[in-house]
Amino acid sequence: MRGKELRRSLSVLPIGTVMKLTSLTARQIRYYESQKLIFPQRSDGNRRLYSLADVDRLLEIKDYLDDGLNMAGIREVYDQKQRESEQRKNQDHQLTDDDVRKILHDEFLQAGGLKTPSAQQPQAPLQKPL
């Protein structure tokens, strides 16, 4: 996680501050938590602590509600975003050994000036002599 993302994910804001930043009531904020739309951390004294990312999400939820989306619709939006994020992560990790070898081979050829990126074309596999 990069530094900026790390800072935004630190849960340090009490609910009173979040209420002022979002113009939401404590009841609304707790309701969104019960709907599994936000996930505040808990302090040692079991008090909710929110991050800047939580505040962003609460403001986003307010916008969705203002646009006429209901809770089920908002949940579906976030579920879809989660699925897309997981798919991107899976796609990034689905390179086979052959894929990696091909990528390295092409990069070595390009680095050596033997092949330009525009000239990349699939080549037939080399045949072993019989």
UniProtKB/TrEMBL annotation:
InterPro entries on file: DNA-bd_dom_put_sf (IPR009061), MerR-type_HTH_dom (IPR000551), MerR_fam (IPR047057)
Composition skew (Low complexity), residue ranges: 117-130
Coiled coil: none
Region feature (Disordered): 111-130
Entry's Gene Ontology molecular function annotations: DNA binding; DNA-binding transcription factor activity
Domain annotation HTH merR-type: ranges: 12-80
Keywords annotated in UniProt: DNA-binding, Repressor, Transcription, Transcription regulation
CDD domains: HTH_GlnR-like (cd01105)
Listed SUPFAM superfamilies: Putative DNA-binding domain
UniProt KW Repeat keyword: no
Pfam family, one: MerR_1
Name of protein: Transcriptional regulator, repressor of the glutamine synthetase, MerR family
UniProt source species: Paucilactobacillus wasatchensis
